Amino acid sequence: MDLANKRALVVGLKKSGIAAVKLLLEHRAQVRATDLKPLEDLPQARTVLESLRVPFALQTPEVFEAADLIVLSPDVPADLPPLEAARARERAAIEQQGRYAVLNFVDWDKLFASGTPQDRPFIVQTLKHWQQDSDLASLRDAAALAKLPAEEQKAFAQLWADVAALLN
Description:
By secondary structure, the protein is an alpha/beta fold. Helix 1 packs parallel to helix 2 and helix 5 packs across helix 8. The longest helix is centred in the last third of the chain and has 18 residues. It is globular, with a radius of gyration of 16 Å.
């Protein structure tokens, strides 16, 4: 997926949100970030966003309106009203089943290889969670995958093979 100049919004600024910000910037996306908490309550995110000059706004419906791509942190509910509105507008590249946003673009192998040793346990934990998360069953289980278009079946099959390979 070519992310150059895509207007990306990262929702949720814990570890995975911060990792998504960095990865999107590496792929030359125009990144903005949002969270329900103000940056004063998120010191690590504040430091990273300020150092990378990534704009931040408190989470409101308006923040979601200008996004081409919305990336959710794992603990962000996928049924947020602004996400539902974005899906209805078809302005954001959100996974068809409405569970998680854009799992297939994340190059976790690169993040794992280039991240600090302290980042690796979190990455492994996240990927293991994906392998068991019931919300992702529609993108992982063979019967559910069979209902998707062939191109998406292939993409998600590759995603899960890559996740398994990285964890081995």
